[in-house]
Design goal:
alpha+beta, D-amino Acid Aminotransferase, Chain A, domain 1, Dna Ligase, domain 1, 5-stranded antiparallel β-sheet, 4-stranded parallel β-sheet
């Protein structure tokens, strides 16, 4: 059976769309062309990488990175026989695209499973994770619960009670779909909010915190059990949009995070248990975004789950590089 890896960076946007025939925006297509080679970091020997653009530029990138990776094109999929596909993330659109390329239906997940992945990828899952972590870790170690709002009135009420709060769309990627509300009366925010509610049905509201460190905890789900895989520390811009990962060994990243969260191992154990309970159907890599922040009283705490990403992550790829080097 051929292992075929696929880079579909529009995955989170396709989840928001929800349909089989999603057309990625130009920036996502450009990202795919630029970064498909990064998938080689997570690929075992003998696996193939799907090239949806020109083959030779991708081959040159891979060689420059030190990989002699097998490349397959869409018109070659039907001749491969049985395959096991590993996209960046599973959604209805990537399944349909693979079918259009000639992939066998029996090698792809069924629609019910894809629907479960989509629902679990909704940002409301972070609320369920917070609630379970409160039971496992205690309320005193947890930040305020995020709140899901399905109307403009409820959202504005939250924002007035919590100045400079963050409002997030249920499905979005790399910090996109996040609004840092500086004024509830700002016309741009009101238009954004109305559009978000119309397109996705609700938004997730979070109390603003003085962030000191952004990072992630990487896991792998296999046979219904979550296993911790490693750490990542992010670089983000002023809008909380992801710009890159800190390129340091795992032990250094662990020390970075433990400066702010000495109970890190307890948090990881609780997350492993919680993820296993919530998404036992899932198989593959996943990431939990975290951040350290300063409480109002001045002491430092950890938000152990900003969001759950049921897909590969840049932090996971960086981890694979270290494991393989």
């Amino acid at each position: 059976m051929v292992e075929v890896f696929v880079f579909n960076p529009e995955h989170d946007l396709a989840l928001a769309h929800g349909g089989k025939h999603y057309h990625a925006p130009r920036f996502a297509i450009q990202m795919r062309r630029k970064d498909t080679a990064l998938m080689a970091h997570a690929m075992p020997t003998g696996a193939a990488l799907l090239c949806e653009d020109e083959r030779e530029p991708l081959r040159a990138q891979l060689q420059q990175m030190g990989y002699e990776t097998r490349i397959v094109t869409p018109d070659e999929l039907s001749s491969l026989g049985a395959c096991r596909y590993h996209p960046w993330g599973w959604d209805a659109a990537i399944k349909q695209r693979l079918l259009d390329y000639g992939a066998r239906n029996e090698d792809l997940p069924d629609d019910e499973w894809l629907s479960r992945v989509r629902q679990a990828s909704h940002r409301r899952t972070s609320i369920a994770i917070h609630q379970r972590l409160r039971q496992l870790l205690g309320d005193t170690q947890m930040p305020p619960l995020p709140v899901e709002c399905s109307s403009i009135e409820d959202t504005l009420d939250f924002c007035k009670k919590h100045p400079f709060s963050y409002v997030k769309t249920p499905w979005s990627n790399s910090g996109h779909g996040i609004y840092h509300v500086r004024s509830c009366e700002e016309p741009h925010f009101l238009r954004w909010l109305q559009s978000a509610l119309h397109k996705q049905g609700s938004v997730i509201c979070e109390v603003a915190q003085e962030r000191l460190l952004d990072g992630g905890l990487e896991f792998f789900m296999r046979d219904g059990v979550a296993k911790f895989a490693g750490y990542s520390v992010f670089q983000v811009d002023s809008h909380s949009q992801f710009t890159g990962c800190l390129n340091e060994p795992q032990q250094v990243l662990r020390e970075h995070i433990m400066r702010f969260a000495p109970n890190l191992d307890e948090v990881i154990d609780a997350l492993q248990q919680t993820i296993t309970e919530l998404v036992p159907f899932y198989h593959g890599p996943l990431g939990i975004d975290i951040f350290a922040y300063r409480r109002n009283e001045g002491n430092i705490a950890l938000n152990p789950c900003v969001e759950l990403n049921l897909r590969c992550t840049m932090g996971f790829l960086q981890l694979e590089v270290e494991v393989r080097s």
